[in-house]
Amino acid sequence: MINIAIDGPAGAGKSTVAKAISKELGIIYLDTGAMYRTVALKAIRSGIDTGDKEAIESMVNDIDIRIEYKDNEQRIYLDGSDVTGFIRTPEVSVGASDVAVIPAVRRKMVELQRKIAKENDVVMDGRDIGTYVLPDASYKFFLTASLDERAKRRFNEMNANGMTGVSLEEVKKDIEYRDKNDSSRSFAPLAKAPDALEIDTTGISPEEVVRIIMNSIKNRKTVGAAK
């Protein structure tokens, strides 16, 4: 199986690039962040504080998350209902970062992620794919960008999706919060795998990042840094 791990902080362009790579190679794209967002959505809908570790641990034992692919797009189902269109709000974004630090949640999600990767050629993006979820992945990449650039990208993405009630400054604060949360958690934190190629995406297009990654895959150069 070909497994490609793409890690990095929020707004670095992981999902956009991973989707393009999956189309280039004709393999499945798995958006792992959507899975944690779905856990957060379940908590919010259940009236559970996403920072309440014990309540979240109890909730996740019975959660039913299912992933399907329709027209080459990932759809995510929570307890039988398609929630793909409900997991991109700022509230869910913060909640996802909260629940992702809980070991019981990560173990549950990683179990599903590894099962999918074992059965399929897959490109997977997240925070700890190359270091924890798929440490033996065929190829590993770590995308980064300046905070201002990442905030601007996420802000424009939200506006394009009709979420216009949030300011750029609020988006920036949300990303700062998530960066701190993701990097400082004790269990499987955001980190660059030693054998991952780091790519600074500040000021370069997604198409250029895809070109760098595709060239790296063809040449099997997966260690170092690039821009």
Q: Explain this structure to me?
A:
By secondary structure, this protein is of the alpha/beta class. It has one domain: 3-Layer(aba) Sandwich (Rossmann fold). Helices cover 49% and strands 18% of the residues. It has nine helices and nine strands. Helix 2 packs across helix 4 and helix 4 (90-100) runs parallel beside helix 8 (168-184).
Query: What structural category arises from helix and sheet content?
Result: alpha/beta
What multimeric state do the chains show?
single chain
Q: How many distinct domains?
A: 1
Total number of strands = 9
List descriptors.
three-stranded antiparallel β-sheet; Rossmann fold; single chain; globular; alpha/beta
